[in-house]
Amino acid sequence: MDADLLLIFGFVLAILLIVLTFGTVAGNRSRAHKLQRLELEARIAEAKAGQAATGNTEHRQLEERICVLERIATDGNHALASQIDELRDLQEIEDRTMPQGATR
Known about the structure:
The structure is a single chain. The protein has helices at 2-74, 79-97. The protein contains two helices and no strands. The model has no long low-confidence stretch (mean pLDDT 84). Helix content is 88%, strand content 0%. The termini are far apart. It has one domain (2-97). The chain has 104 residues and is an all-alpha fold.
């Protein structure tokens, strides 16, 4: 009876060892997958924030242009023409100083 009991105990230990090894490997892979998913979500959030910042800059520039156009439509002032020329000059300077890969 001792031999049978020893055989059963060895069999249970072998199964337990296999199950624990599989559980450890599966747990490590699961954690690695979750970490990769979180890193990708962080990259997506950074990209969206960058796009929003670019969009806000474009939105602000469009609002400034609309204000200028409203003043042109409502004022008949000749000084306004010189202000418009100054704005165009500023825009040309911004275009020249902007990095080549950057877009508005």
